[in-house]
Design brief:
Blueprint: H1 2-32, H2 42-51, H3 57-63, H4 73-101, H5 107-135, E1 142-147, E2 150-156, H6 162-176, E3 183-188
Parallel strand pairs: 2-3
Antiparallel strand pairs: 1-2
Helix pairs in contact: 1-4, 4-5, 5-6
């Protein structure tokens, strides 16, 4: 029986890892598709100069100041938060799985570990829904993390107004049942 539990847990962990890689790929590819401003080459400067002979030397200097931007590092912050959250969760689930599979553990300890295990999986299931509802308020990105009776929401914004804060806290409190005083809201730009 324990062989099948371990096999299922390995399959779940593999699925979580694949999902994490898919998210990482989505963010990397999504950020690489942003418009890229290319620096003009000597040949393009000469051809443009031939087309516009009345340009001044200062205008040519301004054209050489372009830069290549491949991705926005703000998105990396959110990817790192998600990866850290998922890694910490998988570590905690591994410990609980080992506890439940250990023959030297009492039935009460197994029941307690199973309860914590189920709570962690339930939290993982509602994270996406919470993040989507919060992003619907107009934020570029959002990461929800829960530890016991405390929750942390990180949104992509230059600032969070009091009204937005209350909306976020209401959404999290309504879905999770966590008290408003135990919900922390942070922002990155």
């Amino acid at each position: 029986m324990s062989f099948f539990v371990v096999k299922k847990e390995k399959m779940l962990l593999s699925a979580v890892m694949v999902f994490t890689l898919m998210i990482l790929g989505y963010y990397v590819l999504g950020n690489l598709e942003q418009p890229v401003e290319l620096m003009p080459t000597e040949a393009t400067l000469q051809s443009e100069q031939e087309q516009k002979p009345n340009e001044t030397e200062q205008d040519n200097q301004d054209m050489q100041g372009g830069q290549v931007i491949l991705y926005d590092s703000t998105a990396d912050n959110f990817v790192n938060l998600r990866l850290t959250r998922d890694y910490d969760r998988s570590q905690e689930l591994d410990v609980l799985r080992l506890t439940m599979a250990n023959a030297n553990v009492t039935a009460e300890e197994i029941v307690k570990a199973k309860s914590v295990y189920d709570n962690i999986l339930a939290t993982a299931n509602i994270e996406d829904d919470l993040e989507e509802e919060i992003m619907a308020l107009g934020f570029g990105d959002c990461v929800y993390m829960e530890t016991g009776e405390r929750a942390q929401v990180v949104v992509q914004a230059e600032q969070v107004t009091a009204e937005q804060y209350l909306q976020i806290v209401d959404i999290v409190g309504e879905i999770t049942g966590i008290a408003h005083k135990n919900i922390e809201v942070r922002y990155y730009n």
